Amino acid sequence: MSFNDLDGAESWIKRSSILSASVLASRAAARGLPIIFNKGERITDNEILRVFRGMHAAITASSVATMSPELEAALVSASEFTHEFSDFANRACLVSTRNANRKPLTGKNVDSYYSGGGGRSENPDAIAASASDAEAIDIDLPNAIRAPLWRDVEQPSWFSNGWADGAQLMMRNSATWAHWVKWFEDIIEGSPIDWELQLRVALMSDAIWDRGPATVASEIEKIHLMLMTQHANDLLIEHVRSIPSELAGIGHNKPPEGITDFPIIHYEFSQILTATSVVQTELEETSPDQSRLQDSLDVLGKVLASAAKWSAKKLDTSLDEFLKTLAKSGAIAVSGAAGAWLLDLNSKLATLIEMLSKYIGTLS
Questions:
Q1: I want to staple 34 with a disulfide (CB 3.0 to 4.6 A). Which of 44, 163, 276, 323 is the partner?
Q2: Over the stretch 81-131, which tens digit does the pLDDT of each residue have?
Q3: Positive or negative: CA dihedral 353, 356, 358, 361
Q4: Is the separation of the CB atoms in 46 and 213 below 8 Å?
């Protein structure tokens, strides 16, 4: 075991890199988070938000090898935002900064890290879990960051009961707290985290955090939809550029004989690529142009409407028979893979339109 008491933990901190120390500190502090709910319903929404912001920033910082100036500033802001209520979240932020005092387990925060309910005595469960973290960090830092919170130690009842009460309290207003409840449960279980979303949330401005939990929730949903739209847009661009060779030559000028309504005629690829290029550009802007995004949405909607109309007539009846008709026409030899590509194009268009429409709604 790396250590079995606070003195041993402090010795480990002193000889470790700041990144390793920040991983240990953020995970140790996370085990103390349910303690805040000892106040029961007397805890306010703003107090809960302060703790979650600090914990979120510290865990974000522990996952990056190179600290950007923006994230460093966010950590300082988060620690200041947090310190009035939660010392353990405050210290977890500070130890993650590259100029930090590397003693996150000393001073008045000792009981926050290692008590099972606010007492001053060391908690053996929490110390054992941190000792397990230290051993894992020394062996494989990246995997240690993403491991279940109580990996080699049975989750104690004071933690599970405290968090159950806290989650129940928070989910009374699920619109505001659903993201945070899921986020912390993913941390507990070691489930995959969307690190791009994690970083962007950590970098949100103080002005947003200062407006309170409801505003923060709306901004997180906006960021989430932006990332989902970005992903859908990238997939559609990649798909259009991967058009099968047997379909690439079909267009307005030379459709297969007897098949004048072939969908590629209606799939104006240049329009799709232009629209997705605009979406790509706008999503990279600090303040996207809502009108340009709406114009792109309108273009994509018309393309999908044309494709869906054709699909209803042809694909739902018999894709295989239609592909055979194309092949018999002598114009091209169309494979089943090409038919699947057409169907997938419809699906990717529909997904982008759905995500983009929702994202534009957050800009109003």
A1: 163
A2: 665 445 555 556 555 554 444 444 433 343 344 333 333 345 778 888 888
A3: negative
A4: yes
Q: How many residues does the chain have?
A: 364
Query: Model confidence over 239-291: pLDDT tens digits?
Result: 988 876 655 555 444 444 434 444 544 456 788 889 999 999 999 998 999 99
Residue with tokens 């419809």: 346
- Strands of 46-139, DSSP E: none
DSSP string, 97-154: STT--S-TTSGGGHHHHH-SSS-SSPPHHHHHHHHHHHHHHHH-HHHHHTS-TTSSSP
Token pair listed for 350:
């529909």
Q: What is the CA radius of gyration of the chain?
A: 27
For residue 75, what are the contacts with CB-CB under 8 A and spacing of at least 6?
Answer: 57, 58, 61, 93, 94, 96, 97
Alpha carbon distance 359, 357 (integer Å) = 5
How many Å from the N-terminal Cα to the C-terminal Cα in the chain?
55
- The single residue listed with the structure tokens 């993201």 is 179
Q: What is the pTM of this model?
A: 0.80
